[in-house]
Design goal:
Serine Threonine Protein Phosphatase 5, Tetratricopeptide repeat, metal-binding, 19 helices, mainly alpha, two-stranded antiparallel sheet
Length: 381
């Protein structure tokens, strides 16, 4: 049987012609899309890559004027306005997006979130709160709740902060139990300042039950019990701190010494502090042990014991102040110089942002992080 190959003479040229036509159509479509894309948009991207925000904003404004229906250009322009601190114009851009009836719900939620961030960055907390409250049930609900939490913390509205943190905890957005305990402690401080010690104690009891691993509720409980005339209860609270939150003992060491002397439990407190010192040497614990020492020689021996474990300019200065040198005038000058050099080493430092302070904070004044201050001085870090 002979095969007729004449169809190839027609088929191959036809296939080539169809392929050529298809390629020309694709090229033409690409050219049309290129013409439709505003050139100003690419100029804006180029300025952004070169970190020229002002020029990028001008280019995006031109692109938006040429194609006012492009939502992405509006988002880019609004974000640029916010980054440069031009919050009024950022608000206008995002409010314009929300006023449009032709955008889908996803872009509408995105514009609502962007508008809330504009208000938040501008410091308009009440308007930011109202904008964030409209994001319930959206894809931005988690971010909105975190922003609301930040607003309530900044305004020290602890009951609302507690409600939002509990909502985030229930939604498994992270562990907010320690923060909830801090909120209760903050409420307790307010009740204590107003003279309502009963409510203050009840709030601290709730904080202890919620987060017994935190040192703050135990310290606050001991302080409140001591204030209300219950030194034995205060001392017991500090003993529980040693058991439940030993990392906070350096913060409690000085109070423990005072309570132990009042209750005539110096030897018991010294044994407890010494055990903690053997596990992890601490400047504050060493100072507390020196105060519990029966005489000056024993106190200086405590300092030398610390120096055997860890070198410390602070402890060396304390030890030298108790020694008698041949030249008293020179000794006073040397000690003064050492104290001046060691004072910065006694500060506390935030582990999140590095903010240093003379006192210990539960929430960093710089970055607003909770529990970011270790209970140790800068020299010990």
């Amino acid at each position: 049987m002979d095969i007729d190959f004449t169809w190839l003479l027609w088929g191959l040229p036809l296939a080539f012609a169809l392929g050529w036509v298809a390629s020309r159509l694709d090229l033409r479509q690409w050219r049309m899309e290129s013409r439709q894309t505003p050139k100003a948009y690419f100029r804006g991207l180029n300025h952004l890559l070169n970190e020229q925000q002002d020029q990028a904003i001008d280019a995006f404004i031109e692109a938006v004027q040429g194609d006012p229906d492009t939502a992405e250009l509006h988002f880019a322009l609004g974000n640029l306005f916010r980054r440069r601190g031009d919050y009024d114009r950022a608000v206008r851009v995002h409010e314009h997006l929300l006023a449009r009836a032709d955008i889908n719900q996803k872009d509408r939620d995105r514009a609502q979130h962007a508008l809330a961030m504009d208000f938040l960055k501008a410091g308009l907390l009440d308007r930011a709160e109202a904008a964030l409250s409209k994001l319930d049930g959206s894809a931005f609900e988690g971010e909105a709740l975190l922003a609301l939490l930040s607003i309530y913390e900044r305004s020290r509205d602890w009951p609302r902060a507690q409600a939002v943190a509990q909502k985030l905890e229930d939604a498994q957005q992270g562990s907010f139990t320690p923060r909830l305990a801090h909120y209760l402690c903050e409420e307790s401080d307010l009740a204590r300042a107003s003279g309502d010690t009963v409510r203050a104690m009840a709030l601290l009891a709730e904080a202890v039950s919620k987060a017994p691993q935190l040192a703050r509720p135990w310290l606050a409980t001991a302080s409140l019990k001591a204030q209300t005339g219950d030194p034995a209860g205060a001392y017991k609270a500090l003993q529980q701190l040693v058991d439940k939150a030993p990392q906070g003992l350096p913060l409690a060491a000085a109070s423990m010494v005072e309570l132990a002397k009042h209750l005539h439990k110096e030897s018991e407190a010294a044994a407890l502090l010494q055990a903690a010192h053997e596990h992890a040497p601490s400047l504050d614990i060493t100072e507390a042990l020196a105060k519990l020492a029966p005489d000056a020689a024993t106190a200086r021996a405590r300092y030398l014991s610390h120096l055997d474990r860890e070198p410390s300019l602070v402890i060396a200065t304390q030890w030298l102040s108790g020694e008698t040198l041949s030249n008293p005038d020179a000794q006073a000058k040397v000690i003064k110089a050492l104290e001046h050099a060691s004072n910065p080493l006694k500060r506390y430092r935030c582990a999140a942002c590095g903010f240093e302070a003379r006192q210990h904070f539960w929430q960093c004044p710089g970055c607003q992080s909770w529990d970011s201050y270790p209970a140790r001085r800068v020299e010990e870090l």
